[in-house]
Prior knowledge:
Blueprint: H1 2-13, H2 17-39, H3 42-58, H4 69-101, H5 108-126, H6 130-141, H7 146-153, H8 157-174, H9 179-188
Helix pairs in contact: 1-2, 2-3, 2-4, 3-4, 5-8, 6-8, 7-8
Amino acid sequence: MESNDNHLIGLIKSGSQTAFDTAYLNYFKQLQRYAFTFTKDNDEAEELIQNVFCRIWEKRTQLDANGQLKSFLYRAVHNECLNYLKHQNVKLSFNNYQQENASITSDPVKEMAAQELEKQLYLAINELPGQCRTIFQLSRIEQLKYQQIADQLNLSIKTVENQMGKALKTLRLKLVNFLPILLIYLTKGL
């Protein structure tokens, strides 16, 4: 099996769509069952598996499975599921925070300022270059450590640090006009 995996990995790295499709068909169902143990949702599990395979295809020339394609895929799915669960926890925490503070945010001026700041922040994040935006979101939204981001994206930790510095500098520049609003909003409380 290992020599077959080595051959399949080599073909995928060289850009063989047929080899990639073979790997996808051979492992998809069992990986989906594995992902389901984390997500408890078939559609989410399927989407996570597709994300893993898309990332493998996009980074196929860097594929380093050490001849163990099945183990590599399970590890990749495991990491994808953990990231999914972390993201779900962040969303749940945010929703709980919003519900707890819904009655407090009755000041329409503060609410408008907060909405405008959120809108501008969202626009500024979306204007970041692709890799820079991905790294920023993994760090600040999904709260991954730089080393985890580097491992997940197959980048050096130095690249992650540089991209984060670039993202923060760009966001500071784009949101400088909203600093007074943010300060007022934070110092007066909700």
